Amino acid sequence: MNKILITGSSGQIGSELVGLLRSKYGNDQVVALDNRKSGDAEVVDVTDVDALGEVFNKHSIGTVYHLAGLLSATGEKNPSLAWNVNLNGLKNILDLSLAHKADKVFWPSSIAAFGPSTQKKMAPQDARTNPSTMYGVTKVAGELLCDYYHTRYGLDVRSVRYPGLISHATEPGGGTTDYAVTMFYEALQKRRYTCFVKPTTVLPMMYMDDAIRATLGIMDADADRIKVHTSYNLAGLSFSAEELAAAIGRRLSGFMCEYAPDFRQQIADSWPESIDDHQARADWGWKPKYDLDALVDTMLSALSKKLHIPLV
Description:
Blueprint: E1 3-7, H1 14-25, E2 30-34, E3 42-43, H2 49-59, E4 61-66, H3 72-77, H4 79-99, E5 104-106, E6 109-110, H5 134-153, E7 157-158, E8 160-162, E9 164-166, H6 179-190, E10 192-195, E11 202-207, H7 208-220, E12 232-233, E13 237-240, H8 241-249, E14 256-259, H9 264-269, H10 278-284, H11 292-307
Parallel strand pairs: 1-2, 1-4, 2-3, 4-5, 5-7, 6-8, 8-12, 9-11, 10-14
Antiparallel strand pairs: 11-13
Helix pairs in contact: 2-4, 4-5, 6-8, 6-11
């Protein structure tokens, strides 16, 4: 059996996906890869095609979850690095997957592919993509690159546009939507949080369990059910910063949220408030499970145990 490679294995998605796939297929069948030492991960920079090729040769890789990348706010601080890691890293993975006859490749796009001209409410699958960040530019270019490799070479590449992802397993990773994750930590540790977006800012979000289910769902689907070879819209729920703060405040006495928007507000303002994902639902059966109350209850319970802070 060919092995599964997960790049960005210590990141928000990768850290959970590695454990889940190893429990399903066995530790030896899932190869973790990251650009820093983390557990038994292969330490490789995805922009180093030769080192990456050695991993493909060593482990007989057949399926790839390519998750390594720089997020929106981090990418704006170093646009050249974001381009190199996000786009050249993706091309390296696609070229090696093609050369090694990999069965399937998963690569995540993002709501960052959208931009100021995108319809704000229920952004459609074929919405205009005119991003205002380098992160978003790399996602649009990456979507086109994935479609090209499918059309030109027949490579089975699958992708979803993730909303903002909320998880208790890893620390915030430099994304604009990470205000939501940080709010949970600060609420428990300090009972106070200064939010870097306005209270009325509404963005599409998703609890990590739903994101993992979507990732595995699209990868498990029969190839003839995958009709979109750029990237599928994916929706979970949408809420404002003040709605999240109120939901946390109803469960944590004394929690106060203040607002001091910074450069990330402009990024948030360029994205839609909600996403139309009817095509993912129709083509491969996608459906989210978590609403806001379930998300808040789950996050607070998990972080209370992780941080050893009682919920009072």
